[in-house]
Amino acid sequence: xxxxxxxxxxxxxxxxxxxxxxxxxxxxxxxxxxxxxxxxxxxxxxxxxxxxxxxxxxxxxxxxxxxxxxxxxxxxxxxxxxxxxxxxxxxxxxxxxxxxxxxxxxxxxxxxxxxxxxxxxxxxxxxxxxxxxxxxxxxxxxxxxxxxxxxxxxxxxxxxxxxxxxxxxxxxxxxxxxxxxxxxxxxxxxxxxxxxxxxxxxxxxxxxxxxxxxxxxxxxxxxxxxxxxxxxxxxxxxxxxxxxxxxxxxxxxxxxxxxxxxxxxxxxxxxxxxxxxxxxxxxxxxxxxxxxxxxxxxxxxxxxxxxxxxxxxxxxxxxxxxxxxxxxx
Length: 329
Fold this sequence. Notes:
Elements: H1 2-27, H2 34-46, E1 50-53, H3 60-69, E2 75-79, H4 86-90, E3 91-96, E4 101-106, E5 113-117, H5 124-136, E6 138-141, E7 144-147, E8 153-158, H6 171-174, E9 179-182, H7 188-200, H8 212-224, H9 229-243, E10 257-259, H10 263-279, H11 287-298, E11 303-304, H12 306-310, H13 315-325
Parallel strand pairs: 1-8, 1-9, 2-5, 5-8
Antiparallel strand pairs: 3-4, 6-7, 10-11
């Protein structure tokens, strides 16, 4: 086993230069926001969709645009609005008067990297169309199904403070996002750098450094990262505790949790922990990797009761108590 871990570590080291170059290009435009950048890379390496939530002006859209510029892939930005139609997203059939036939006009969803800006502003029909693309990596136009080209990644943003003109995302769709990342304000020193870059216009152009084949190669190595049986059991224990808190002696949380995390959370905890280990140059997963990614994987999958809201408890509070109570191997 030790030889296998060393072999995997060597494979990870081979990809380190590409990751460093990618992060270097992103840093040309993004100051600070280390966790947001890390989670975007986790999504890229895992092939998992990401939902970024934060107030306006925290560089959510800029970060996704910058990532797209650093990759030699097809990129589309879709501004979600209340009057958006499914056809505006996936495409439609166009009538050709000259011969009386119909031809397919593909929509912006036919790209490798999709920025779904303010995703919660679109109505349910549009969300359903996006859901098929996210889950099945295909779309249906005029009764015919079209596969989407890989890599395919949806990076969505939403503003948590506005309610007017928004449509809460269906739970089924939210569960399709591998991570829900909450973006916070930058530190004072970081914001000073942002100010200097904007006033002095010192931002450098971002250059593409990764080809699709490079992404596929890194994803293959991520899938090889070693995960011990004890770490796998640790993941299961965390997810189980969101459903049955008494399993980790937290019976007082039971009235606060309406629904625990789905099996998809179990899968994404394992995949996300592997991607974090890869980003840190390791060929094996530690329990700390699981803890580091747990909030982003679980916060939108642990649904609380009205009692929890009355006590001003958030899903992050509940998950934090669970992570503190579940024994670490």
